[in-house]
Amino acid sequence: MARKMRLTPEHLALVPPFSGETGRLAGRSDIPTEAEWGAVADSLLANAPADGQIWIFAYGSLIWNPEFDFVEERLGTARGWRRSFCVGWVRLYRGTPERPGIMLGIESGAACRGVIFRLPPERRREELLKILRREMPIRWDEVFARWMTVTTDQGPVKALGFPVSRRNRAYLADLDEATVVEALATAAGERGTMAEYLHNTVLHLAERGIHDRYLWDMQDRVARRIEQGPPHPVLALG
Fold first, then answer.
1. 166-171-176-179 Cα dihedral, nearest 10 degrees
2. Is the pTM of this model over 0.85?
3. Is residue 237 scored above 50 in pLDDT?
4. Which of 14, 45, 113, 159 has its CA 20 to 30 A from that of 81?
5. DSSP secondary structure code for residue 190 in this structure
6. How many angstroms separate the CA atoms of 11 and 105, rounded?
7. How far is 216 from 223, CA to CA, in rounded Å?
């Protein structure tokens, strides 16, 4: 029998939506130039597999909203990594300075089951740039894109992933789960709420037969937090 999520669309409707002008990407002074994104793309492609095939490892929203073209997808496992809400404080996309969020990342751990997408060979740089603009929307202190080995039923694949580095200033170490839950239940930005992000990720993983215990526990706890009453913004964090 399929598991039934506690976090439902009815819960999501209770989280106040984004409003106002803060937390928008447009107009920022720290958006990379096309030349900067291009330099990262060229560096990654220079170390691509010898067969020229570019695969992207997706563990979160890239699965259900890739925003790039691909010609093939497979289920795959990145060993040595695990999902974790450890990237923040998010004041773009699904958070604002007033209601900061925490994004999902992968960091050192046992294993992460996800999806790999193969880019069109004739447009691999063009599609890779789309991904970099999305995953690295503001200037970085460290490029966290890297090649990793992903195990699939068809054999191992070298794929490009985006694990968070513990040296990155956006990495949030040792957060207690109550703080994470509060952020996921309250944060919202121009791309929607963090609760919606969590719901979509768990739902689309389940559709592919992937069960992540950590995310399943989080969706249950976030639903319970929303049920307690109107969420209060997480303020003065980091």
1. 180
2. yes
3. no
4. 45
5. T
6. 24
7. 11
Pick the closest to residue 105 from 70, 51, 76, 144 (CA basis): 144
C-alpha to C-alpha distance for 41 and 43, rounded to whole angstroms: 5
- With b for 16 or more beta-carbon neighbours within 10 A and e for fewer, the 183-207 pattern comes to bbbbbbbbbbbbbbbbbbbbebbbe
Residue 159 in tokens: 């794929």
Residue 171 is given by DSSP the state: B
In the chain, what are the domains? Answer: 31-226 (3.10.490.10)
- The H or E element spanning position 87 is strand 72-90
The letter for the amino acid at 60 is G
Quick one: which of 201, 162, 193, 187 has its CA closest to 60?
201
Q: Which is nearest to 76 in space by CA: 162, 148, 152, 153?
A: 152
% the chain with pLDDT above 70: 95
User: 177 pLDDT exceeds 90?
Assistant: yes
